[in-house]
Amino acid sequence: MERQYISRCPACGSDHIEKLLTAIDYTATGETFEVWECKSCGMRFTQNAPIEQDAARYYQSPDYISHSDTRKGLVNKVYHYVRAIMLRRKARLVKRATGLSEGNLLDIGAGTGYFANEMKHCGFYVNAIEPDKGARETAARNFGIVEQEPAALSKFGDGSFDVVTMWHVMEHVYRLPEEWQTIRRLLKDKGVLIVAVPNCISADAAHYKEKWAAYDVPRHLWHFSPYTMRLVAQQHGFCLEEIHPMPFDGFYVSMLSEKNSGAALPFLRGCLRGLSCYLRALCDKRYSSSLIYVFRKP
Questions:
Q1: Do residues 130 and 109 touch, judged by C-beta distance below 8 A?
Q2: Which residue from 71, 93, 190, 241 lies 20 to 30 Å from 234 (Cα-Cα)?
Q3: Tens digit of pLDDT for each residue in 241-264?
Q4: What's the confidence (pLDDT) of residue 106?
Q5: Is 220 helix (H, G, I), strand (E, B) or coil?
Q6: Residue 77: what pLDDT?
Q7: CA 24 to CA 131: how far, in whole Å?
Q8: Which residues are within 8 A (CB) of 112 and not within 5 positions of it... i.e. 6 or more apart?
């Protein structure tokens, strides 16, 4: 199988990159992949990931909740409960960041359509992009939402949207510079981009190391910290306005990480570790398991 080799840091351009750790694909194949780190800025990325044409099989698992919408197991039941809470918070954030109670929203990587449906009911006109056929079918069946394939992005005119959202999607994108350029083109002047990604310098990442579930190799290609996310955004002319913690993510990721570690009582142990990480993030949001970044196009 052909692999993708990265020779320069995507955040700062340095060639001073080294292997940091080896992680396992716990979700689909059991294969191992290397996570490398830039010694100049700290950006991390999955080295020798499958090329984009071969990536689909790594998403073909009933345990991949973003596509399968599974409620199997206690951890996934908790995920659905927490998602209902977070959908309302995300909607409030979009309204506050844009200053709009209605407008044109593009949700990239819409999964099974929950957020797109929430924003539709909030009064926004929503376009949704999702590469996975099964997820698109679920969104249509559950919510009547027609999600389009990524190729549809080229059909939208310049300045079509007030806001673009990417909830745990940017880490999956193969052509990272092109993605940022496309978003910049599609946003209106002073438009808002909201991105949520795992935080590779979080308290739970430091604790679990190569077992940290949010490395999620090889589906996650890029592993951002607040500093490296800002660097990448600045390359493409975006201004960072706000950073918000995602407090519940630490619990979910810790539960999965305990499962990855083969620990007994992973749900209970994950809750306790998640609580510890949550309390640390209260003191400094840079330690939050995942972060939401609010950018503006000048």
A1: yes
A2: 93
A3: 999 999 889 999 999 999 999 999
A4: 98
A5: coil
A6: 65
A7: 24
A8: 66, 67, 69, 135, 138, 139, 142
Contact 196, 167 (CB under 8 A): yes
Cα–Cα distance measured from residue 122 to residue 115, given in angstroms and rounded to the nearest whole number:
11
Give 124-153 as a 3 state SS string. CEEEEECCCHHHHHHHHHHHCCCCECHHHH
- What is the per-residue pLDDT for 74? 57
Whole-angstrom distance, CA of residue 185 vs CA of residue 158: 5
- Give me the residue label for tokens 């939402």: 145
Integer Cα distance of 235 and 97 in angstroms:
22
| Residue showing tokens 């890029």 | 222
Report the residue count for the chain: 298
Both ends of the chain: CA-CA distance in Å?
42
